[in-house]
Amino acid sequence: MCRQLAQHYRENWVREYARGYLMVHGTDYSYDELLTIAKGQLSLEEAVTAQSNGKLLFIDTDMHVMQVWCEFVYQQCHQWILDRIVERKYDLYLLCAPDLPWVADELREYPDLESREQLFHIYKDIMVNQPVPWTEISGSYEERFQKALDAVQRLLQ
């Protein structure tokens, strides 16, 4: 959806760093590797930001995701990640509900609906308790994209 939004608005987007990292290093990651991934994500975000001259930048993931990933898997989170959450400022979050059928790939974890719903509620709790506007995205792929477009348009008005 991030890439699709960027294409729609003819703006840049920042891909998820973890995907490329795990494709190279494998999915048997350690707690410390999550910090490496978090730092890689922010480096990628900064590099794309430096190249952007538009008014929008779509970012696939942020440090909230890294926090949840650390805590869900290892029951702890690196202070560096928590510090970046406080420092980084964004304009809008799009929170995708787990209402689409599971699509497996070599990197996705937690195919069971119970885990995906548990993670969704963790993310939703974070959204409710932070100051940035956010929109819950659900429905079919087309409905999701339209909800995302509507949320971005509200932000731009």
Explain the overall architecture.
By secondary structure, the protein is mainly alpha-helical. It is built from 7 helices and 4 strands, in the order αβααβααβαβα. The chain has helices spanning 2-9, 17-25, 31-51, 63-74, 79-87, 113-128, 141-156, and strands at residues 12-14, 57-59, 93-96, 134-137. The strands form 2 sheets. The chain has a two-stranded parallel sheet. A two-stranded parallel sheet has the order 3-4. Strand 3 (93-96), helix 6 and strand 4 form a beta-alpha-beta unit. The chain is globular. The two termini are 21 Å apart.
Report the major sheet: 2 strands, parallel
Instruction: Give the strand order, joined by hyphens, for the main sheet.
Output: 1-2
What is the element string, with H for helices and E for strands?
A: HEHHEHHEHEH
How many helices does DSSP assign?
7
The CA-CA distance between the termini, in Å, is 21 Å
The averaged pLDDT comes out at: 95
Structural class: mainly alpha
Helix content: 55-70%
Number of E-state strands: 4
**Morphology call:** globular
Question: Radius of gyration, rounded?
Answer: 16 Å
Poorly predicted runs are none
- What proportion of the residues form beta strands (DSSP E)? 5-15%
Q: What labels describe this entry?
A:
157 residues; mainly alpha; 9% strand; 4 strands; two-stranded parallel ribbon
